[in-house]
Amino acid sequence: MLIAEDGTEKLVTAALAQRGSKYWCPGCHRPVRLKRGAVMCAHFAHQANQVCTTFSEGETAEHLLGKQQLAAWFAASGYTVRLEARLPEIHQRPDILVRKDGQLPLALEFQCSPISVEKLRQRTQGYRDHGYRVLWLLGSPYQHQLRLNAKALKFLQHYAPWGCFLVYWLTAVNGGELLLNLTTVDGERLNYQVQAWQAAQVPVSAILNLKPQLSPPRKTATQFVTFQQRLVLGRLRHQPAVVSLQTYCYQHGGSLAQLPNWVFMTTAKVPILKTAYLSWMVYLLMALRTAPANLSQQRLQTLIWQTLLPCVAQQPCLLDPNRLQAQLVAAAISELRAAKVISRQGRDWQVEADQLAWRAH
Ligand SMILES: [Zn+2]
């Protein structure tokens, strides 16, 4: 922890604390010691064996340093900054709370340790329910290759000018990295654009007001579609979800190799599913087979939603997951139409049975 109380119950940051003075934990009010060494930046620590429910002692050097860097960056950018501020109304203590006139207060969480989706949901919702915005910045444990089920993806947020995004804070350079316009293609690492900056050179407002040029979603060139499909199947084949998809196909009288072309995605999509997009499309294929040949717009939409929802990942940081899902449903309708799986019949849709058949071996 970076903050403690002195003998007059005033909060003191570790960097400004006096060696030899006495300090107390603002959470449990037990005495804490000032630590200043070569490895960790100045901080306070409880005495050994003392259990404090407010401040865990598992803070890494990275977490302590990152909090300080972020606090300094926001302060230098004209924000009022409180480190480890207690928010009694929600029993939460964000790493840093920043305020600026005319804006909702913003809680910054620099996450360097594991956190469950449920805990992430509770904390994010707690802030939002009480009029705080929250931004999760990820530390080095989350900097692995970004695949669809990477641990970092539960922090996914969405903002129209940036698309789906994640923010990293890199203490080694005292700067940030915004991974924006995140999209997925089955069987590949995620695609994204990167905007990197250093705290000393770029103020907070320049990042928040960033309106980068978003590259259009990647598309598979028509001549490579079949190649792409084999590649996707090859790469996905050993994933448990796809093994069960194979079983699902058998139960319906076919196999993965006999799927019609249109179930394979040819355009990159937002990474909000927990499964390959292929799974969703296979469920949709089977749902269309048992549906009437003539569907109202409403009925078609409902059917697509019903196949989508079981595939959606938990995304506690998204403000409006429903909107992204609705966009996927709309895109699915236009892709089904382009693939001639459905065609307009007056105001309704006609389902083309030919497009729902298993392909011959
Ligand atoms: Zn304590």
From TrEMBL:
Q: Where is the Competence protein CoiA nuclease-like domain?
A: 59-209
Identify this protein by name.
Answer: Competence protein CoiA
| Species for this entry | Lactiplantibacillus nangangensis
The record's listing under InterPro entries reads: CoiA-like_N (IPR057253), CoiA_nuc (IPR010330), Competence-induced_CoiA (IPR021176)
Which residues are in the Competence protein CoiA-like N-terminal domain?
19-54
Cite a single Pfam family from the UniProt record: CoiA_nuc
Organism ancestry: Bacteria, Bacillati, Bacillota, Bacilli, Lactobacillales
